[in-house]
Amino acid sequence: MIELSAVTKRYAPAESERAALDGIDLSVERGEFVAVMGPSGCGKTTLLNIVGLIDAPTTGRYLFANQDLAGRSESELTELRKRNIAFIFQAFQLIPELSVYENVELPLRYQSAPRARRRTAVREVLELVGLDLRAKDYPEALSGGEQQRVAIARALVNDPRVILADEPTGNLDRGNGATVLDMLCTLNREGATVIVVTHSPACAERADRIVHLLDGRIVGAAQARI
């Protein structure tokens, strides 16, 4: 599903500047759940942004679903991302002026989806995350755990093939964090490929495989779930 070969990312032109990513080789199979761990500044978020087509490698090769992305235009990459990839962030990134329904509906509006399709899809994902009765509420009326569940619903409304989560439990207490992890595991069992960046051993242990980064390099990988 995802294959990075000798991927390097530099943000500064100076040769002496350490690369954010330095020769990354990583394969993620369809339907796999991978956790990426490492200290702050080791390149975890940069890696996630490259996999999610938000950023591009300085050098190296990226294959997504057997498609070589070299030379693709920004508009082509944007369409590929919108059709296949969803992000879940630590900070939820909900729009406070929009209701729960409108926040979840937003990706479909960006795609100019028909109104009937938007209505059906939003209702289904809100039921999935247990927030169908909060559709008319605004983010400020929700707990942190509920806001993250809205963010998950927004990520799922396009039925993505890949879910990328950047510290999805970082702002949550243990109970709400466990609920979010349960949802990610359920989505993975239903066929989604999941990559989670995390500092939390409890989160990483829910994955199939843990990849460790240090100074922009993969320094280890191990099976997590048996």
Would you give an account of this structure?
The chain has one domain: P-loop containing nucleotide triphosphate hydrolases (Rossmann fold, 3-Layer(aba) Sandwich). It is built from seven helices and ten strands. The protein has helices spanning 44-51, 74-84, 100-110, 115-128, 144-156, 174-189, 201-204; strands at 2-9, 21-28, 33-37, 59-64, 67-68, 85-89, 162-166, 193-197, 209-214, 217-223. The strands form two sheets. Strands 6-7-8-3-9-10 form a six-stranded mixed beta sheet, sandwiched between helices. Strands 2-1-4-5 form a four-stranded antiparallel beta sheet, with helices on one face. α6 (174-189) links the parallel β7 (162-166) and β8.
Keyphrases for this structure?
226 residues; alpha/beta; Rossmann fold; 4-stranded antiparallel beta sheet; 34% helix
